[in-house]
Every structure is written in structure tokens, then in C-alpha cells.
Amino acid sequence: MRKLPAILAEMVDGGVSLGTLFHGAIETMAVGMLALDLEGRIQYANAAYCKMTGYSTSKLLNRSFVPLENPDERDAARA
């Protein structure tokens, strides 16, 4: 069985960018993931996060992450 680093190296050598590989991995994983800017605004949400929250990507982009948090957790984090 070939190891993952060898497979990835072959894909990159074949012209697939690391950004494309990373995006594909993040987009297809079952775990919800977000990317936030320094002010806490959502810049990216993968399909699993959208499914988990019921929001579409377009509804999430540039929204503050804070209102989506559990209020008890938000208050504890700010204390």
C-alpha cells in the first residue's frame, strides 16, 4: 500500500496545487469547519458546517461567528 505523502507528492508533481488538494480535503470532510478573519467574521464554511447549522454558505459569509455560538459558552469565553 502506498503512503499518503507519496501519493500527494505524485499529485503535486502532476500539476495539482497544494491549495486544490487542501480545499478538496476540507470541503469533503464530515467535520464542520470555518475560516474566520481577525474580526471573527466568517470567510469560509465547508459543506458539513452548512449542513450542521442549516445555513447556506452565502448566508454565513461575512457574518460574525459570535451570534452562532451558544450564549453560555460565549459569556464564559469572554469572562
Distance from first to last alpha carbon? 50 Å
Please tell me how large the radius of gyration is.
17 Å
Uncertain ranges? none
The main pleated sheet reads as: 2 strands, antiparallel
Query: Major sheet: order of its strands?
Result: 1-2
The overall pLDDT, averaged over residues, is: 79
SSE succession? HHEEHHH
Shape: elongated
In short:
By secondary structure, the chain is mainly α. About 50% of the residues lie in helices and about 10% in strands.
Descriptive overview:
The protein has five helices and two strands. The chain has 79 residues and is mainly α. A two-stranded antiparallel sheet has the order 1-2. Strand 1 and strand 2 form a beta hairpin. It is elongated. The mean pLDDT is 79.
Give a quick set of tags describing it.
elongated; 9% strand; 79 residues; 2 strands; 5 helices; mainly alpha; two-stranded antiparallel ribbon
